[in-house]
Write the structure tokens for this entry.
Amino acid sequence: MKNYIQQIDLSDLETITAFFGIITFSNDFDLVYEKQIPNTGIILFNGELNLTKKKNSLSVIAPGALLGVQNMIDGNPVNFKCSVKKDTSVILLPKSEIMIILRKKNSSLYKILFGASYKELAS
């Protein structure tokens, strides 16, 4: 299983939040489970996002990190669990909206979300 992550330029987060909004979690919460095909992309806005595999930490995620989109589009499960900590804010990108953006290749959202290349996340 391959996992991909992209770093969104922080100056572009305003454009993304205007379209998708921000969700702040009042409790710790698991967003994606290991071996699950994500049904939403995730961008860390602020706070703490943990990627773990079999209870071992995989990666430190910085604000602006985008993950789950390429796996969602390709239909490939992730090999990590993604959890947010209390008071963490994220931008959730539902698959239905991503599919619309993919059809509008000249839109600013397409250029932001798909303009940079993804790198494979070490597992």
User: Anything to note?
Assistant: Strands lie at 4-7, 23-24, 29-32, 40-46, 49-53, 56-60, 65-67, 81-84, 89-94, 119-120. The chain has one domain: 4-112.
